Amino acid sequence: MKAIVGVIAAIIIGGIVMMFATHMNNVPKLDESVKASWAQVQNQYQRRADLIPNLVATVKGYASHEKEVLTQVTEARAKVGQMTITPEVLNNPAAFKAFEQAQGELSSALSRLMMVSERYPDLKADKNFMALQSQLEGTENRISVARRDYIDTVKQYNLELRTVPGRWVASFLYPDATVKETFSAEPQSQKAPTVSF
């Protein structure tokens, strides 16, 4: 009888040890994936920030009558450029929201700039503008993909911290691990844009 109890105890203990062993490195691996995904989002934001001065300079030559839109783009880019993004931003909801809002303002200003190009055929026909517009549109798509990937890696990380056995492993081995913030749409982006001709 003692032998059977010993075997059962050994199986239970072995199962617990195996469960912990298989999840032991998940938290740091997933945390690094979140950091890498965030770095890719920042990389795409930097690419956009590098393109904007060229785009604005090109557009200024052809659309001096739309100075207000160009000023908004320049100001929005400057605001984004002034923000210092650190890994702590991912754990600070207020800082993360401020970063998202600044990026949203820049996206909005760029959308208005694209509308300018549609209103002025001479501007739209310029090869330099067309090339830069194409690059900018591609960058916006890349940002969207990078955000999607970031959201997915945050989801995996947060699930690991909030479900068993990952929750137990994290509380035992990584007590400083916390749930990460993810992107959320600005309230005004929920409304369909108005298009008038």
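Next protein, fold it too.
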Amino acid sequence: MSETEKSTMDSADIMRVMELLPHRYPFLMIDKIVDMDGDNSGIGIKNVTINEPHFQGHFPKQPVMPGVLLIEAMAQTAGALCINARGTEDSPSLVYFMTIDKCKFRKPVVPGDQVHFHVKKIRNRATIWKFDAVAMVDGVKVAEAEISAMLVDSDN
């Protein structure tokens, strides 16, 4: 990828992420998205902190981020890309998580980690998207999955 292409990539800070997704604390799993290329790809970023509610019980003496929340963060990153790519002309939309395939957890994620959720579109037909997603901490793969979702117009 050339420097010109990199400079045209979009990003979304937390305020933009909250405009794109209906999720809120404690279920908003991404803090920002960088390197957004339409609905083709992007990288969601999550700063994992000890004060998140799931660490009270998972596990008190050895906190580990639940794998299902890693998958949810992948889905939120992909969903935000889909909604952002629609632009502002269309009505607000919701993204419903449909499937998880080829899911693997490779290494625990713990407080203090910064997780990068690399999502890349596999295909899109009408209102259904399928993405390849990989979660990385310090350049090491910690989880991966193929996820699909459907975009629907919300009723507000």
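About the second fold: The helical segments are 3-7, 14-20, 67-86.
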